[in-house]
Amino acid sequence: MSWAQAILLARGLSRGWGGICGAALTGATFSQLPPQSPRGLHCSSATHNSDSSLVPRPPEPLRKPAKALAPHEELFRQAPDGARDKASFVRAVQNFGQHNVHKRGHVDFIYLALRKMKEYGVERDLAVYNMLLDIFPKEVFRPRSVFQKIFIHYPRQQECGIAVLEQMENHGLMPNKETEFLLIQIFGRKSYPMLKFVRMQLWFSRFKNINPFPVPRDLPQDPVDLARLGLRHMEPDLSARVTVYQMPSSKDSIGTADPIEPHIVGIQSPDQQAALARHNPARPIFVEGPFSLWLRNKCVYYHILRADLLPPEEREVEEIPEEWNLYYPMQLDLDYGRSGWDDYQFDINEVEEGPIFAMCMAGAHDQATLAKWIQGLQETNPALAQIPVVFRLAASTGELLASSGLEEPSPPPPEEQEEEEDDPQRQRRGQS
Amino acid sequence: MALVHKLLNGTYILRKCPQPSVASCPFLSTRVAGYCSKSLEKPVATPSKGSSQRNTEETLQGHHQREVALDITSPEEKPEVSFDKAITDEIKDHFRRLKDEIVNHWIGPEGRPLQEVLLEQAKVVWQFRGKEDLDKWIVTSDKTIGGRSEVFLKMGKNNQSALLYGTLSSEAPHDGESGRSGYCAMMSKVPRGSFERKRSYDWSQFNTLYLRVRGDGRPWMVNIREDTDIIQRKNQMYSYFMFTRGGPYWQEVKIPFSKFFFSNQGRIRDAQYQLLLDKISSIGFTLADKVDGPFFLEIDFIGVFTDPAHTEEFAYENSPVLNPRLFK
């Protein structure tokens, strides 16, 4: 406690000294200061530049390059092979602890480390966040008197602690017991980081599993697996079968002159198969797409095989046997039937669209690829041989991109998944 | 004041060409935004920053204008401008609506017999069956604070559903203070009676919100605002999440009102209160899932209904750690 006060006092003195020096050096920018300038002047210029740091800077090496680097940046450059992984990040954090026994500038270091986490790929690692919190000196920032509890005690440090927790929150990480112990040790129970912790614990546990259509956190890298996952995700019928019609050919085996065969993965449920068998061969069916589907932060495109809605005179009403009908009593015609109280139907005609017979995800969105899908479908749906299939594709890619007017007109490579940023709905409207 | 707004709005409709200069008047900003959603494809009018951004915006707007030009009468024809006529028309219209309101009040709530209203178990509140239904909605994005997201609202392909689409961009505006950005939102306008009096929806006999939507797998947030005259409460909302499955099938989303949590200025409050359904002013959908890229959401209709199986009063208990005052 006393040393912290002493440091604060020293900081105030040095800033005052810096103010005097700054007044003396009117017009001279600080970067032009000679590198052999006295140490006090150098430090004061640093604090003068960024008033946001309450904690005094560590003694910076005088061979620092002229352009302003964040303090402690050099700790993150020490990895000899330039490897950016968890091990090197942990090493950098540990190095900070070893070099600074007094933990000088730890707030700056933590902010810097938070910015660097994404680079090192550790932004979803709870242990690393706990390690960052562990940098804070223990028991120093805990309020001891009533007045310290009322007024925010060590506000910069508390803000920094909140920033760590907030980054955890943004990446959906639930803090654990260790985080709680660290926070209590560092800031005490009555502090803002602790409040944030309690809120996170409360709301994260409430909203943890509310997504009825969960997507795994780590998506498969293989496009075929990803397509399988996406199709399963979209299809509500669990008895639907996923078929891989064509595996992607390996690119390196044959020369690049050979056209790469894209993958084709399709899904069809038994009900859809039966509906396709019943379909009137006089009416054409359509291959439409591509439509986008987001799986967390990955966008995949799919195509559908569908028919137009039948005109009302051609629809045959399918009689469901009464014992199959979940709403069985609806067929009964009794006196005590349903009154106005029991009308749970919305008074609206829902949008009706034609039946969908199958879906597929392919590596390329051109007609040749999708024709292969239709060929593959014919093996399980012999009726498809008689039905004319119309390709209503938005992607004869060149014209599509030209019409959007945003992207360059070069046709995308055949195995693209993300290149087409255009809105498929617009394409669909443009085609129909 | 409200009447003046309406009058100005009316004259603009008569003129048939939106004047972006109106955006300079802060009072009219919501009106302008509303008018934008009315004119099909036009994005929210915002001052664009940077020449490159302006370029892309202009190409986009030009593109959409071309699309629009297919099905609207061209703005070339000269509409007659008569300020007096607009004023008299507006006043007549308002008096007609006032008369309707008085007569309807005599019949029953909302002009329907009381028995019918009491027996109602499911009610369609918003539907999208024509272009005039889009006028009840406002779309905004973070362009209003300097971001790069874009959102448009139009009728779907078969003219029977609304299509909300655009691009989300989480690039923060370069204004020196915003650290992050990226949202697109659509919200319903506050219903207005005659002489622009604020009105509200009474859903107190229902307990579940029903949406028939089709999305692309992105999570949305459903926000409900209570009608209030207290200025301190204007940022308070009740929210819950709507997850879309993605794919070509329509999806029925049922959200019990008890699940909505209470937030103020976008932060969840520690003390949670139940959503009171007797005075609902508007509903909104927000997309802000930090994933850059195009999105779409098709909405068939939005309704409320009574789910007899749902008996929960409120889903979130208050924590004694966070608000000890409630437990004294």
UniProtKB/TrEMBL annotation, chain A:
Name the Gene Ontology biological process terms. cell surface receptor protein serine/threonine kinase signaling pathway; innate immune response; non-canonical NF-kappaB signal transduction; regulation of protein complex stability; toll-like receptor 4 signaling pathway
Does the keyword section mention Methyltransferase?
A: no
| Recorded GO MF terms | molecular adaptor activity
The record's gene field reads: ECSIT
InterPro entries reported for this sequence: ECIST_C, ECSIT, ECSIT_N
- Pfam families, A to Z: ECSIT_C, ECSIT_N
| Signal peptide (residue range) | 1-18
What are the coiled-coil residue ranges?
none
**Subunit composition?**
Interacts with MAP3K1, SMAD4 and TRAF6. Interacts with SMAD1 only after BMP4-treatment. Part of the mitochondrial complex I assembly/MCIA complex that comprises at least the core subunits TMEM126B, NDUFAF1, ECSIT and ACAD9 and complement subunits such as COA1 and TMEM186. Interacts with NDUFAF1. Interacts with ACAD9. Interacts with TRIM59. Interacts with TMEM70 and TMEM242. Interacts (when ubiquitinated) with NF-kappa-B subunits RELA and NFKB1. Interacts with RIGI, IFIT1 and MAVS; these interactions promote RLR-mediated type I IFN induction.
Q: In which compartments does the protein localize? A: Cytoplasm; Mitochondrion; Nucleus
The UniProt record lists the ECSIT C-terminal domain at 269-394
The segment annotated Disordered runs over 36-67, 401-432
Q: Where is the composition biased (Polar residues)?
A: 44-53
Name of the protein in its database record: Evolutionarily conserved signaling intermediate in Toll pathway, mitochondrial
Keyword annotations from UniProtKB, A to Z: Cytoplasm, Immunity, Innate immunity, Mitochondrion, Nucleus, Signal, Transit peptide
UniProt GO cellular component terms: cytosol; mitochondrion; nucleoplasm
Automatic annotation (TrEMBL), chain B:
Concerning SUPFAM superfamilies, the annotation shows:
Galactose-binding domain-like
Task: Read off the Gene3D superfamilies from this record.
Answer: Galactose-binding lectin
Compositional bias annotation for Basic and acidic residues: 55-81
Q: Name the Pfam families for this protein.
A: CIA30
- Major localisation: mitochondrion
Keyword terms: Chaperone, Mitochondrion, Ubiquinone
Set out the biological process GO terms recorded for this chain's protein: chaperone-mediated protein complex assembly; mitochondrial electron transport, NADH to ubiquinone; mitochondrial respiratory chain complex I assembly
Where's it found, cell-wise? Mitochondrion
Give start and end of each NADH:ubiquinone oxidoreductase intermediate-associated protein domain: 126-299
Q: Which stretches of sequence are listed as region Disordered?
A: 42-81
An annotated Gene Ontology molecular function = unfolded protein binding
Can you supply one Gene Ontology CC term for this chain's record?
Answer: mitochondrion
This molecule's function is given as: As part of the MCIA complex, involved in the assembly of the mitochondrial complex I.
Q: How does it assemble?
A: Part of the mitochondrial complex I assembly/MCIA complex that comprises at least the core subunits TMEM126B, NDUFAF1, ECSIT and ACAD9 and complement subunits such as COA1 and TMEM186. Interacts with ECSIT. Interacts with ACAD9. At early stages of complex I assembly, it is found in intermediate subcomplexes that contain different subunits including NDUFB6, NDUFA6, NDUFA9, NDUFS3, NDUFS7, ND1, ND2 and ND3. Interacts with TMEM70 and TMEM242.
Similarity-based family: Belongs to the CIA30 family.
| Name of the protein in question | Complex I intermediate-associated protein 30, mitochondrial
The organism encoding this protein is Rhinolophus ferrumequinum (Greater horseshoe bat)
